[in-house]
Amino acid sequence: MKIRTLSLALLLSMGGLFYSCAENSPADNAADQVEYETENALSNMGAEVREESDEFERGFREARTNVDNRMNELETEMESASAEARAEMEEEYAELEGYRDDLDRRMDRVGANWEAGWSDFEGDVEQGWMDFKRESDELMTNIERSLDPEGDLD
Predict the structure, then answer these.
(1) Which of 65, 57, 69, 72 is nearest to 117 (CA)?
(2) Can you list the positions of beta strands (E) in the chain?
(3) Helix ranges restricted to H, 20-124
(4) 44 in a structural domain
(5) What are phi and psi of 111, to 5 degrees?
(6) Is residue 152 part of a domain?
(7) Number of domains within the chain
(8) Is 19 within a domain?
(9) Is 143 helix (H, G, I), strand (E, B) or coil?
(10) Which segments of the chain have a pLDDT < 70?
(11) Would residue 154 count as lying in a domain?
């Protein structure tokens, strides 16, 4: 919704520029004000995304550590496991590898270069960020369930 408002404000700003190019005219002043408000809104949105991005990065790092620990445990357990138990452990290990790779890709997107990552959200930036958040939340839930199948850890 913010993006639509910003787009409209930018469109009005551009229209005002073409309407009157006279310095200090009402249209020029209105265009300057819209431009200022647009820049301010973009700055505020960037701050919100940066904060959420930092939270995701912390969560991803913690989840990655938990996944790595479980993978190490599985490697140790597989050495002395029966063939049947080993097969089950290998399936879990493969699932954890997929989660680890997904976490790595997401950490790249929200890491220190998050500003460059804006281009990853093609089209509507706000919708792209919302999709990323939803997918990330689902990933974190799946990892939590995978690491605690009995649901007894908090």
Answers:
(1) 57
(2) none
(3) 26-79, 83-110
(4) yes
(5) -75, -155
(6) no
(7) 1
(8) yes
(9) helix
(10) 1-49, 111-126, 151-154
(11) no
CA atoms of 58 and 116, how far apart (whole Å): 19
Give the dihedral sign, CA 57/62/68/71.
negative
C-alpha 123/C-alpha 142 separation (Å) is 28
- Using alpha carbons, list the distances in angstroms from residue 111 to 25, 35, 106, 114: 44, 29, 8, 6
Its pTM stands at 0.61
Q: Which domain holds residue 10?
A: 2-147
Retrieve residue 38's tokens.
Answer: 């647009």
C-alpha to C-alpha distance for 6 and 114, rounded to whole angstroms: 21
Of 6, 3, 2, 29, which Cα lies nearest the Cα of 16?
29
Measured CA to CA, the distance from residue 145 to residue 39 in angstroms comes to: 42
Q: At residue 90, what is the residue type? A: E
pLDDT at 1: 46
Tokens of 111: 């890491």
Round to whole Å and give the CA distance between 26 and 39. 20
Please state at what angle helix 125-147 crosses helix 83-110, rounded to 10 degrees: 150
H/E stretch holding 23: none
